[in-house]
Amino acid sequence: MIQPTQPEVPPPAAPLQQLLDGAVHEAHFAANVSVDGTALSLTVYSSEAPFARTVDAAAAWMTSTGIDGTAACNETGSVVLTVATAEAVHQLIAALLDPYIRARTTATQMADLLQAHDLAGGSTVTGAHAIEVTLADDDLDAAIGFAALLGAPGIGAGLDLRRPEGLLGLADRIKWLTTGVIGSEIYASADPGCVHAPEQITLQLTIEQARALLQRHARSSNSPAAHPE
After folding, report:
1. pLDDT of 193
2. pLDDT by residue (tens digit) across 167-223?
3. Cα–Cα distances in angstroms (integers) from residue 166 to residues 57, 149, 172, 175, 190, in the given order
4. Cα dist. 170→3, 74, 132, 164 in Å?
5. What residues pair up with 189 in beta bridges, in sequence order?
């Protein structure tokens, strides 16, 4: 007599507590991981979650992203996402945390690029899909140097950079230079600074735009022209 095949039991979520904890930490996402029997629960504190702070909104988001789990509200009013299987843990990381991990990695790479070329400024994450690049010094060398990395070393020619209109003109030129390099429009702003703060040009980029800039620089750095004999 042939015995019926027993359905395969999916691996439980609980053994992946360390993996989920690590992803939360790497994403800088305000949340807490706890074991709930064989399941894992993620208590969400971050205001950057891709859903409103309600059970209905969290449950709808889990359904829309294909995550097999439940949403509830704890005694302090925080949303708690619970997943029972290892597959759901991986889905939760991919949908909720990986975008922030990628954003922070991209911001770090952009900051490293500026530092490698002694350009004053920095790069910060402004959301799961965006970063902000600042080019800040009193003589605007950082902004001009950044443009030079993109193939426009004389971008400040004809501008009086000691005047606000010169700074705005430089920001506009960098905006359109960067837009041309990556093929999609970016936003750039200028701040004339003050006694306690340097002049600053700020670029707002999506993660894809920032990665395109990094790739462009990598290609230029590896070209024969960038490394003459």
Report:
1. 72
2. 899 999 999 999 999 999 999 999 887 777 788 999 999 999 999 999 988 887 664
3. 47, 21, 10, 14, 10
4. 77, 51, 17, 10
5. 202
Give residues with Cβ within 8 angstroms of 78, minimum separation 6: 43, 44, 45, 53
Which residues of the chain, if any, have pLDDT below 50?
Answer: 223-229
The 8-class DSSP code of residue 3 comes to P
| 82: its two tokens | 């619970």
Q: Which tokens in the block code for residue 102?
A: 């990628």
In Å, what is the CA distance from 199 to each residue of 9, 83, 161, 176, 189? 61, 49, 10, 20, 11
Which tokens belong to 94? Answer: 């991919």
Answer yes or no: are the C-beta atoms of 142 and 120 closer than 8 Å. yes
How far apart are the C-alpha atoms of 202 and 121, rounded to whole Å? 9
Query: Quick one: DSSP state of residue 24?
Result: H
Q: How far apart are CA 36 and CA 181, in angstroms?
A: 50
Exposed/middle/buried for 199, CB within 10 Å: 0-12, 13-18, 19+? buried
Tokens of 78: 């925080």
